[in-house]
Amino acid sequence: MKRCSVIIQGEGKGHFSQAMALSGILTSHGHEISRMYLGRSLFRRLPGYFRTVPDVRVVRFLSPNFIHTPDRKGIRILLSVFVNLLLGPVYLFEAVRIGIHMRQDKSSHVINFYDPVGSLAARWFRKRAVRIVISHHFYLSHPDFIHPHGMESSYFWLQFMNRIMMQSANRVLALSFRKGKKAGKTEVVPPMIDERIRRGTYTPGDRDLCYFLNPGFVEEIIGYYRNHPERKADIFTDGEVFGEIPENVKIHEPSRENFIACMYHCKRIITTGGFDTVAEGFYLGIPLFLIPSENHYEQYCNVLDAAKTGMAFHMDELGDLEDVEFTPRDNGKFREWVEGNEEQTLL
Fold first, then answer.
1. 188 - beta bridge partners?
2. pTM of the predicted model as reported, rounded to 2 decimal places
């Protein structure tokens, strides 16, 4: 039995959901999760389902995050870098604080879902532990991934962060929508799908399921359904929604249970380029329509890679929903890969 600390970068639901799925796999194989460390931002409200985790003590800490563009549809790269550099002393203090907790945990393994503050803490305070970093970001540093032209500044910062995270780890697990060969200490592994989703069955319904981390898209998608009263939608967002909500739209606060329930019976998923929702949609065989957040290089790469599988459609703008007819490729091989590689992610 191994004793594990789990560190989670808390932006969006992706890292958290992947961490919870892996924690379930580890505990089912007799390992122990001693503590979870959840990074939070000064600029985003932590969704309610992030705040408590049953049976595991959660330590929260401040961690770098992005700043929204004024239209709340994307991120401001240079301003985010500048503000986070100013907050550097705070993050160093947080690294020491949670590092002391980790030393008290005496975990044999530290599993980090792409949090830089947690990476520093593990490197300084748990040198003898096996340090594992997990994220789809690492696939963007894999030789199999072909980078799109443009956004060179964003490309530089992502690779810079990846190098820091990878150098601090003994093992690097690159989550991917597609299989890939091992490159150095980087192993390409499938997404870790929540057991509740793996137990469920998808039956197409008549309501679209929309999830947008950046609230600027929510106002636009509500306008789309206002102009198409014959279509229905469930929209999940943690942002404040202004204006009148049409009768064919339901707004939901982030809730893991409600989101999964809606997935089982939705018509299609319309979302940005976050890794986790896309992977879950692939597993269930739901048609996915993806639009990356503005200036968000990682999401843009995710959307391009998802579209290459034939199971998702890449939109340049939400207006593309007007004309497109899309039937996803069969997801059988993807499901086999997910279900057949559980052992690869174990310690």
1. 174
2. 0.86
